[in-house]
Amino acid sequence: MADPTPTPGIHHVTCVAGDPQRNLDFWVETLGLRLVKRSINQDDPGTYHFFFGDAEGTPGTSMTFFPWEDLPQGKVGSGQVSRVGFRVPEGSLEFWEERFDEHGVDYDDRVERFGGEARSASEKASGDQPRAETVLPFRDPDGLPVELIESDIGDDDPTTAWTEFVPADAAIRGFHSVTLWLADPDPTEELLETMGFENVGTEEAEGDTPGDQRTRFAAEGPVGKYVDVVPTIQGGRNGHGTVHHVAFQTPSDADQEAMRTAVRSRGLNPTQQIDRHWFRSVYFREHAGVLFELATNGPGYDTDEPLEDLGGRLVLPGKFADRREQIEANLPDVTIPRAERTEADD
């Protein structure tokens, strides 16, 4: 069997929230991400599905949520994505600490990670001097563990800053990484290598269970390129403030089918392709139980709304379009945060 085309990295991450209005207010107004799609959970159409991303909904930037209000509070533990990291421009963490103080966000002290030594082969070949990552851990209103990580955002970066609430020199620019907590990391680490990630180093897992080791795997794409693995047997439970699944980019249908075949060769049981309207998906649980998705990069979020109007209306894909009146009647009313504008802004 030929090796599949390596994944460039993370496509999106989907999480569980509680109150939908609180979720919108935090991720749009406080964190400054754009609501690029307001839709429904296609497996549970009585629940919203919010997609937050950069200005254009670029693959590798969308954090999505199912706000299931009737679920209990979750707890991060083994067999879960334990935290999600986002890239922010270098030198912007002071801005974010001040913003978090202003908005009452629960955050921790900054930590340094990897000392710059964990780099993929292409990063080493570039000749750039390694440097430590600076990380600002915080939690969203549902208790979801999140990190902002200072990163070099080059002029050729594929993401586009959304500046409605946060200036471009501090705006979130897509994913940096996800961290997996696993009781037995070895099978999952082998799977990541099958998917095209390279083991680039290990260090003590600062901020996780004391004494644990954090092993980093790197893809070759520019956004969402890292998966960190930390071994732990700490118990967890699904609910508010936990990750539902992490999706990895398989840009084309052919890439996805080749990766699906490779995943099956690891003894796993991926689904057939499912049309999610803005991308096509394959799902499977990796060896430790974390739900993985393979997602194509197209058709994209602008196939049913003009780019300038993304997130402006409730979009009901495919078979749900004829049920709009019924679906809207069962969803709570929400208001999309908008920045106050003055004549000087126009």
Automatic annotation (TrEMBL):
<feature type="domain" description="VOC">
    <location>
        <begin position="9"/>
        <end position="151"/>
    </location>
</feature>
<dbReference type="InterPro" id="IPR037523">
    <property type="entry name" value="VOC_core"/>
</dbReference>
<feature type="domain" description="VOC">
    <location>
        <begin position="174"/>
        <end position="297"/>
    </location>
</feature>
<dbReference type="InterPro" id="IPR052537">
    <property type="entry name" value="Extradiol_RC_dioxygenase"/>
</dbReference>
<dbReference type="InterPro" id="IPR004360">
    <property type="entry name" value="Glyas_Fos-R_dOase_dom"/>
</dbReference>
<dbReference type="Pfam" id="PF00903">
    <property type="entry name" value="Glyoxalase"/>
</dbReference>
<dbReference type="InterPro" id="IPR029068">
    <property type="entry name" value="Glyas_Bleomycin-R_OHBP_Dase"/>
</dbReference>
<protein>
    <submittedName>
        <fullName>Glyoxalase family protein</fullName>
    </submittedName>
</protein>
